[in-house]
Target: Pyridine nucleotide-disulfide oxidoreductase family protein
Amino acid sequence: MIRGAHISPDDSPQPKLLLVGGGHAHVAVLADWIRNGPPPPGGAARLRTLLLTPHPTLRYSGMVPGWLAGQHARDQGLVDLAALAARAGAVWVQGRCVALDPQARVVHTETGETITFDLASFDTGGVGRGHAVLGDDPRLIDIRPIDAFVARIAARPAPRRVVVAGGGAGGVELAFGLRNLASAEARPEVVLATGAAGLLPGFSQAVRKRVARAQARQGIMVIAEDARLADGAIMAGNRSLEPADLIVAALGSAAPDWVRESGLAVDDAGFALVDRHQRSCSHPHIFVAGDVAARADLALAHSGVHAVFAGPVLAANLRKLLAGEPPRRSYQPRWNSLYLMNTGDGSAIASYGRLAAQGAFVLRLKHWIDKRWIAQYAALAGTA
Model:
């Protein structure tokens, strides 16, 4: 493993593939390299693959609400990226991308190092919107990046009263998890400020009703107003939500500044525009997946579900391009996605289109799916 190394253009005459970020899509790429051998045919001797990530592990965000409620150990939802990279014939490089020059084919890290590439793929995830939307406050913690969120929650005293801003599935699950916080002697009071769009926009009425009933049963206060910080106080509309020991921002993903500044084609929000093959619309030697990408041909929510399914497509297209062939695979989302929301009290709520279900059996299904996802990569990495 190389930690903060300078990788010069003359290090090797071999083609260099740079994977920037350790998100769900790149985990699938590494898995493909392990199962089928590194591309092109002939293996790693003909290709240098580098994986650049800030941490040697990926934390699976879907298990964080369960950790809050004491259903998982803190590090039970980790994927060992460094071990996966080693098994895939790649080199893990510790660092965070802060700038990209697509013309010069150079990535700059936060420590001032540079890494060159022939072909690059980016799966860095988005950045939090908490400070930009709500304002600044020492009590404010954004859920992005998820590793920093977990570290800050673990390091602080258990809160007595929490405000969660954001009415999507992430905000809902975190509100449930914090209401059932295992490290707290007394259950924290929780207020969920959903925003003007209300609770779970885009979900069926049946799901919203079940979630609302579960929130009422657990004593979670729900306010359909936009949260904001004003004069040191957390507000929802004209209503003060004080006192609050902790403010959690679950407001969706924003694009990192370096994406727009790089000169890559971007959408109005600054996410990298890609075609149906996950290829940059402006620079064909660059691929982008996960939350940092926006499809030019269809509207996709920034969701881990889509990144998971885009991963094998990305792996196949990288393999084709490295073999000198055009990419062919495309991720087409299903008509609906399955969401399993942990309510923190031994139950969960399932959403699939208009269908909804609730109970301990749904939580058992969620735990089985989550742990199976982690276990498959542990087996591939040789860490099981």
